[in-house]
Design goal:
The chain is built from three helices and two strands. It is mainly α.
Length: 111
């Protein structure tokens, strides 16, 4: 096996170089979603997409395992963003109150 997933195999006395296929995340997600839907068998999907059935099953299980974390991470980020915005707004309110009191004092309108 050579670096970068390339290997050399002898086929019929000839040397043949093969390179490992790399699939995009979008492709994996599409195949895994099709597998989860169950409209077609894994073997049918394998022939359609040109991927080994075991690989499709692996992607399907990985997707099922990761989906809950995706939603919880998004929810946590949204709450964190809201908390940051709220803290920023409270800080701004406090700053404006201080400036207002200072202006009142300078103008002689202190209460």
């Amino acid at each position: 096996m050579l670096c970068h997933g390339t290997s050399i195999e002898e086929v019929g006395g000839e040397k043949m170089s093969t390179q490992r296929k790399r699939y995009s995340a979008e492709f994996k997600a599409r195949v895994a979603l099709d597998a989860i839907k169950g409209h077609k068998t894994v073997n049918e999907l394998a022939s359609i997409y040109g991927v080994h059935p075991t690989q499709i099953t692996h992607w399907k299980h990985q997707l099922q395992k990761e989906v809950p974390q995706i939603f919880s991470a998004q929810r946590a980020k949204r709450v964190q963003d809201q908390d940051a915005l709220q803290a920023q707004l409270y800080q701004q309110i406090g700053q404006l109150k201080v400036e207002l009191e200072w202006l009142k004092k300078k103008a002689g309108l202190a209460t």
